[in-house]
Amino acid sequence: xxxxxxxxxxxxxxxxxxxxxxxxxxxxxxxxxxxxxxxxxxxxxxxxxxxxxxxxxxxxxxxxxxxxxxxxxxxxxxxxxxxxxxxxxxxxxxxxxxxxxxxxxxxxxxxxxxxxxxxxxxxxxxxxxxxxxxxxxxxxxxxxxxxxxxxxxxxxxxxxxxxxxxxxxxxxxxxxxxxxxxxxxxxxxxxxxxxxxxxxxxxxxxxxxxxxxxxxxxxxxxxxxxxxxxxxxxxxxxxxxxxxxxxxxxxxxxxxxxxxxxxxxxxxxxxxxxxxxxxxxxxxxxxxxxxxxxxxxxxxxxxxxxxxxxxxxxxxxxxxxxxxxxxxxxxxxxxxxxxxxxxxxxxxxxxxxxxxxxxxxxxxxxxxxxxxxxxxxxxxxxxxxxxxxxxxxxxxxxxxxxxxxxxxxxxxxxxxxxxxxxxxxxxxxxxxx
Length: 433
Known about the structure:
Elements: H1 2-16, E1 20-24, H2 30-39, E2 43-47, H3 51-58, E3 75-78, E4 89-92, E5 98-99, E6 102-103, H4 106-115, E7 123-126, H5 134-147, E8 156-159, E9 178-182, H6 185-195, E10 202-204, H7 208-236, H8 243-251, H9 274-284, H10 290-314, E11 321-325, H11 340-350, E12 354-358, E13 364-365, E14 376-377, E15 391-394, H12 403-409, E16 412-415, H13 419-422, E17 430-432
Parallel strand pairs: 1-2, 1-4, 2-3, 4-7, 7-8, 9-10, 11-12, 11-15, 15-16, 16-17
Antiparallel strand pairs: 5-6, 8-9, 13-14
Helix pairs in contact: 1-6, 7-9, 7-10, 10-11
């Protein structure tokens, strides 16, 4: 009876919208989600250990482009974990990066360690992407063993994978169908009651492991198909094929085909990382993921091929300057996580090849201990002297760039996005890679 009593109490508060919610982690996933929840008239506390983020938010300054953040009286922000101990629902949207191609869940573990005395009687919703079994290993089994908390009785465990598309759906999240799951019937019912009031459509997965797998499945599918088009693109020119025309033609088929377009590789937090979470988990149970391994290799090789081309033509010039156009991992955003541009620039720096970059969304790159081994500031794209650069490499095809001017004023253009081909702009100095 105790489990039903706890369930009914939380359910009642959800239905009356008197439930208090906390979103843990205010990055590209957490902050838009917190914004959506408060727009649905629920009280929400955004929690993050980054004091600079909290200071900005408390000063009503939003650090995520495109997000229309509503600073209403329904939302507050804190870096003090004590402020969220008494909330009813905890939504966890913490980073889950890789470390030497292995899952790195240190952010999650640290939060659980600090919060483990406060999970009782709460609905816990884990949104971060990880391998199937993470929720069970880090939450369900661990808290049962350490704190004697029983799922569906003392605490309600659920998982719902995020579906953020940076620069595209931050303000329309509620329209994206939401996968939900729970450890017990009461866990499932509570997340369904809550998220059906936040999202237009919810889909209940069989169990938590299935929901965890679903998220990775979505991104493995994309990684494999991106690798396919990035491999097959090298067949196009030798066979006198206009690759973009071929893709657009295939796209007219109303079934059995989804278009993917060539690029310099993969970037962001999902596609380069999520498949390797599954690969790592597969190794634990003795299964080889050949398609995933091959796609990861192909996508990684794209930057090497671009770099190899640049070093091959460097020999023609006494002075050799390269302009990198775009460093965000995809167009019209400022996100440089796992960016192919950064990887290319790191290679150029290592070989002492002079380069500059231009990205209106990324004003500055600072040297750090992981991805970036240089300090650079973006050139003003309205004041670039294109003739100064022997080669221009289009890595990110932001819509703001003036492509006809770029074509007219540049020497050699390496187009990794096939943007000029898409615009039907032809020039013998444009190289598609």
